[in-house]
Amino acid sequence: MDGILNCMDDFPTHLAPYPRRFSAMPKILNIGYRPQKNTWIDNAFPTANFSFILSGHGQYGYGGQYWDVAAPCVITQWPAARLHYGPNDGETWEEFYVCFPGKCYKQFLKSGLMSEQRRMWPIVNQKRFMAALRGFWDLLKELDWADRVGWADRADIAIQSVIAESLLGAETNLDANDRAINDIRLKIEMNYLADHDFDELALDAGFSPSSFRRHWQRIVQVPPGRYVMSLRIARAQRYLIETGLCVADIAAKVSFDDQLYFSRKFKQFVGVCPTEYRQVNQMPNQ
Question: Do 36 and 89 fall within a single domain?
Answer without folding.
Answer: yes
